[in-house]
Amino acid sequence: MFEMSRDEFDDAVRDALDEIPAELAAMMDNVVVLVEDEPPPGDEDLLGLYEGVPLTERTDSWAAGSLPDRITIFRNPTLEICDTRDDVVEEVAITVVHEIAHHFGIDDDRLHALGWA
């Protein structure tokens, strides 16, 4: 397991978000990105999680009182599979792109086909 402080990991997530093209970031709607140390029980290997209603599935009634969608990046499972800081930065970037893709309605099968899973 690679050791990295919470602040350093937060910075890696922030840097990955900064790499998202501005045009794409501008199309993201009502979504928050969080970092947690551990994934939900039973999903110990999970690196990221999208919870919400993808943009492709939203209807006119969706906006009335909807909470923000959540993208959560899990620190400890990511550190478990990485050997270096560069590995962490790369894995975080992949995970951020993967979860943002879910926000845009792209499923895991398509992400695998595109090489983002």
Automatic annotation (TrEMBL):
InterPro entries documented for this protein: Zincin_1, Zincin_1_sf
Query: Taxonomically, which superkingdom?
Result: Bacteria
Protein name (record): Zn-dependent protease
Q: Native species of this protein?
A: Cellulomonas persica
